[in-house]
Structures are given as C-alpha cells and as structure tokens.
Automatic annotation (TrEMBL):
CDD domains: HsC9orf114-like. InterPro entries: Alpha/beta_knot_MTases, Put_MeTrfase-C9orf114-like, tRNA_m1G_MTases_N. Belongs to the class IV-like SAM-binding methyltransferase superfamily. Residues 1-29, 198-224 are annotated as: Disordered. Residues 1-12 have a biased composition (Basic residues). PANTHER family: CLASS IV SAM-BINDING METHYLTRANSFERASE-RELATED (PTHR12150), METHYLTRANSFERASE C9ORF114-RELATED (PTHR12150:SF13). It holds the Pfam family Methyltrn_RNA_3. This is Deoxyribose-phosphate aldolase.
Length: 421
C-alpha cells in the first residue's frame, strides 16, 4: 500500500523549529507521526530509581495479562525517564536457586552480557511467570529496554517473551533507527579481530580480512560492533567479549565511523540523554538499599502507602522563578532519588518477610521508618484499591516537579519514626 502523500516520515534529528514555534504554519504540522524527540540540555548527575515487587505479576491470571502489566510499567519508566528499576521479592515464596548470584548479570540490561550467560545460567523452562514472578518481571523489562535491533542477539527464545512483541514500543532515545544519528549508540560485539586467536570473519569489514593474512605478533587487536547502522563499527586497540552489549561514543559522522566504548551512564552524565533504565533484582526490600549501585546509596527515598501523608501536602514549590522556565536546566537538591511501591498487600508485606529487617526489630507497622517520606499518592480515591501499575504512573506524575527541580519536599514532613509531622 502506497504511503499517503500527506504523511511525513518520523523526524531523525532535532530541528530548530518544532510545532508550535514561530515560523511554522498549521499546514506544516503533521500530527499522524510522533514529533516529540528527547532534547538533552547538558550532563545530568542525578538519577531516578523505582522499586517494584515481583508479586504483582502473580496477581495477574493469564500470561497475556502478566505481560500487559509489565508493558504498562515499562511505559511509565520510559515516559518519566527512570534510570533504574529494582525488582524485589516481597512474598517469601520466590524461587531460591544456588545460581542466583551467578545469574545477576542477566538482569543488568545496560551492561555488557554474553549469550553464554543468558543461555547457560537461566534454564529455558526453570523460570516462568508462574514459578518466579520476579524473574518474569525483570526478564520482560530488560527485553523492552533493549533496542529492537539488539534483542535477537541478547534474548533467546523464551516462554516469558512470547507476548512481548505485542506490547507498545518504548521508543526511548537509545532505540535509534538505522537512519537516525546520535553521538552515542548501543551495540553488540559481533567479532573480535585478534590475529593470534580469532578465526571468525566479518563479511562487512574488509579491514578484518585484510589483517587476518598478517602473521605479525605485534598487530593490535580490534573489536567489530553492530550498532544498528548500515556499516559495522571497528573499535581499534581493544578486545571485548563476543556477543557483549556495549555503549559506544562516536567521534565523527560519516561512512567510516570512529567510536570508543564508554560506560552506559556516560550518555546521561556527560550529554544529558535519557539512556534507558537499568534493571536490578533483589531478594528482599532491605537489599534494595544495601545493594544500591550508587556511592553513598540513595540520599532521598519515598515509600508509598494509603497510610502515608498526602503527596500534594509534602511537596512545595521551590520559589525560584528562574528554574521554572525550562526544565532540566538545573540540578535538583538530591543526587539519587528512590521511590518504592508495594504489592497487593503493601510495603508492609515485604517487611514481614524480610529477615534482615526482622533482625533489626522493624515490624510492618514501622514501615515508614525505612524512608525519608511516607506518602499517600491519591487521598480520597474512588476505587477501594489502586493497582501497583496505576500507582507507578500516579507516583511518577506527582513527583515530576521534584525531579525537575520546581518543587521540593517539606522538611517538616520528613518521617520522624512515629508519624509524619
């Protein structure tokens, strides 16, 4: 079917004039395709983390419902630029396996992983949505975060993913098309050029074949990376494991791309891009805090409960009018913000089954002690219950002003151990 003449293609770069700006007529505005592109305004050091219990998956009945639930949460994480999502066990019935720690890298979606780790440490039928809901949640979230052109390399066939293809696309800034340019890209190592050890070729790269004929022991190594572009990228003087996911930074745009591997946080910290979310799995609620990947842990935390203080009374406007003019042009007061959501039985259930918290004599009634702020996202709700996937959207919407720096939490509402004052 021929494309209608009045339909424009998706924008592939940041234009100076966007719809609604001066110089754009109504006839030039195309509303049939998405036009909102993420525009970084400088490096960002602060992060936003969300913690969700895996038990919410068990509450859904069919595999289709479970998959859709994860898709709803993933969309919220992408829309609100969440940097880290932590999946923790809260019911005391999660599957326990000796290889759990070895399997940890399987959930670190933004980090380099090998196919051997994916295939070898995760049994194809050992974990399903019914036997281990936390694994299912982390598995599908990792799949959705991965750029589409890398999924076939990093995710083998698995029953958990059979409905993931029907979920709405996250379309995050690092989910780039082949004709879109960005200084950073996610890629996968498809070959390592080592004249002493490598026997594999890269058909799309004459550099590789030309150097295979050389027997010089001093020839430098190189790595060939598929970044979703029409041409493969050769990274000289470095060897990376094959099938590993890597983040690369380009030094120039052209037919011969020069790139270097960088830490997955570099696009955010140096350029200000939102570069997807990092998936971390924990055995318990206490592990969410004790195993934080950030130096010093989380310096600001919110626990959500219908027994907390109303969120709209906890936050107040910053008062600095200069900050309200364009979002992301300032640094919030916090460094690492954590928002924890409970399951069907609330955060209190996670405390009840947490051995470390029991040893600390923290009971479910003391749940608010774990957080800086214990908040109710929607007082006066019309429904008896708010589902966790709904709470994620409500919570991230309510905290948007805090993330952007236009609002700040009132110190008088900081939890003092007995109640919010």
């Amino acid at each position: 079917m021929r494309r209608p003449s009045n339909v424009k293609k998706r924008k592939t770069f940041h234009e100076e004039n966007s719809p609604g700006q001066k110089g754009i007529s109504e006839s030039d505005v195309c509303t049939s395709k998405p036009t909102a592109l993420f525009a970084p305004t400088g490096g960002r050091s602060h992060t936003l983390s969300v913690a969700i219990p895996g038990s919410i998956v068990a509450n859904a009945k069919s595999i289709e419902q479970k998959t859709l639930l994860v898709g709803i949460i993933a969309r919220a994480l992408a829309v609100f630029c969440v940097d880290e999502v932590v999946v923790f066990d809260d019911d005391g019935n999660s599957a326990q396996h000796d290889e759990y720690e070895q399997d940890y890298d399987y959930y670190d979606s933004p980090m380099a992983r090998t196919n051997d780790q994916v295939n070898g440490t995760t049994p194809s039928k050992g974990y399903t949505a019914y036997s281990d809901p936390s694994h299912f949640l982390a598995h599908v979230l990792s799949y959705l975060e991965t750029p589409p052109y890398l999924r076939k390399h990093l995710f083998p066939m698995h029953p958990n993913l059979r409905g993931a293809g029907l979920l709405p696309s996250l379309d995050m800034p690092h989910h780039l098309r082949a004709n879109e340019w960005c200084d950073y890209r996610e890629g996968i190592v498809i070959s390592t050029v080592d004249h002493q050890k490598s026997r594999r070729g890269c058909n799309s790269n004459n550099y590789h074949h030309r150097n295979r004929r050389s027997n010089s022991p001093t020839s430098p190594p190189a790595t060939v990376v598929d970044t979703g572009l029409s041409q493969k990228v050769v990274i000289p003087d470095i060897q990376l494991p094959e099938h590993a996911r890597v983040t690369v930074r380009f030094s120039q745009q052209g037919p011969k791309h020069r790139a270097e591997p960088v830490h997955p946080s570099i696009p955010r910290s140096e350029a200000g891009y939102y570069w997807g979310y990092y998936v971390r799995r924990c055995r318990s609620l206490s592990s969410v805090f004790t195993e934080s990947p950030f130096d010093g842990g989380y310096d600001l935390s919110f626990g959500t409960s219908e027994r907390g203080a109303p969120l709209n009374t906890v936050l107040e406007e910053d008062g600095d009018e200069q900050r309200h003019h364009i979002h992301h042009n300032h640094t919030p007061e916090y460094k690492h913000l954590l928002v924890v959501f409970g399951g069907v039985a609330g955060i209190e259930a996670a405390i009840r089954y947490d051995p470390q918290l029991r040893d600390m004599a923290i009971s479910p009634t003391d749940a608010g002690k774990l957080f800086d702020y214990w908040v109710n996202l929607l007082p006066g709700q019309g429904s008896r219950t708010i589902r966790t996937e709904e709470a994620v959207w409500l919570g991230l919407t309510g905290l948007r002003g805090l993330v952007e720096g236009t609002h700040r939490p009132k110190k008088s509402y900081r939890y003092n151990g007995s109640k919010a004052t």
